[in-house]
Design goal:
Radius of gyration: 17 Å
Strand content: 15-25%
Strand order of the largest sheet: 1-2-4-3-5-6-7-8
Number of domains: 1
Shape: globular
Order of helices and strands: EEEHEHEHEHHHHHHEHEHH
CATH architecture: 3-Layer(aba) Sandwich
Largest sheet: 8 strands, mixed
CATH superfamily: Alpha/Beta hydrolase fold, catalytic domain
Number of helices: 12
Number of strands: 8
Distance between the termini: 24 Å
Helix content: 40-55%
Structural class: alpha/beta
CATH class: Alpha Beta
Length: about 280
């Protein structure tokens, strides 16, 4: 079901399933997606007894959408990490309670930082597509697998004309960028139900603008049990960045390569994602 979760920062729209007292799993979407990217995983986790919550994150939820033109710092990554802790507290898991974190793409970037900075709060970590920031930085600096070209869109998102270009002519460019990479039409429409609004898309791009360069983000080693899923047809993350992620895990770590699947794993291989998540969560209660 869709719910509104009130936090100190405002109200997040979220998809929620499962018993209120079940182990908490917070699922963080990437760009240009929304809470809808977890359309299969949330009900499956709920049916398995977990309390699954997939929010539209800061800027995507209208109730937590500071004007980036007035205060870009409201979208700094520290604030995004705090939002995850605030959501856990809002649903009855204040410190020192632990919970599971799942993230894809930008949501994966946030998830890595939550686990690195607050390992005492994270029961397990699952990340899709997005490599550990240290592995990404190494690949970017060495330009392994043409990683700089793969990440060229990061720089483009700093251009103030980007929102207009993406939404022009019925969001033609944004639609094409998703459908060309295997995202089904109905899923594209769900994402555009949120990001089709210029204010939402400006706020989503503020994540990139506030961080500066993703390759500059410093994140320490990860000690919590971690599952990392990467599709070997990913257009934005090369094999080196994916494989080097293991170098930044000091706790239990599992790396699963998804053959023939690209960046948008929950859209292209939802059943596989669900199976891996259920297995990982059960192994690390």
């Amino acid at each position: 079901m869709t719910a509104s979760i009130a936090t100190a920062a405002g109200c997040f729209i979220a998809e929620v399933a499962g018993p209120a007292a079940g182990p908490l799993v917070i699922l963080l979407h990437g760009f240009p997606q929304t809470r809808h990217s977890w359309r299969q995983q949330v009900p499956a986790l709920g049916a398995a007894g977990y309390r699954a919550i997939a929010p539209d994150q800061r800027g995507y939820s209208p109730g937590v959408r500071p004007d980036p033109a007035a205060d870009l710092s409201a979208y700094r990554i520290d604030r995004l990490v705090t939002d995850v802790l605030d959501l856990a507290e809002a649903v009855g898991r204040p410190a020192p309670a632990r919970f599971h974190v799942v993230g894809h793409d930008w949501g994966g970037q946030v998830a890595w930082l939550v686990a690195a900075r607050h390992p005492d709060r994270v029961a397990s970590l699952s990340v899709l597509s997005r490599p550990h920031p240290g592995a990404f930085r190494r690949a970017f600096q060495q330009d392994a697998d043409d990683q700089r070209h793969r990440s060229r869109h990061h720089r483009a998102f700093h251009d103030p004309t980007t929102v207009g270009l993406l939404l022009d002519n019925g969001a033609e460019r944004l639609r094409r960028s998703l459908t060309d990479r295997g995202v089904p039409g109905p899923a594209v429409e769900e994402y555009l139900s949120v990001l089709g609004a210029p204010a939402a898309l400006e706020a989503a791009l503020a994540w990139y603008r506030a961080v500066g360069a993703l390759a500059s983000v410093e994140v320490g080693p990860i000690s919590v049990p971690t599952l990392y899923l990467w599709g070997d047809a990913d257009h934005s993350v090369g094999a080196s960045a994916a494989r080097w992620t293991a170098d930044f895990a000091t706790g239990p770590f599992r790396f699963e390569i998804v053959p023939g699947v690209g960046h948008f794993i929950t859209d292209e291989a939802p059943d596989l994602v669900t199976a891996h998540l259920l297995e990982h969560l059960a192994a690390h209660p």
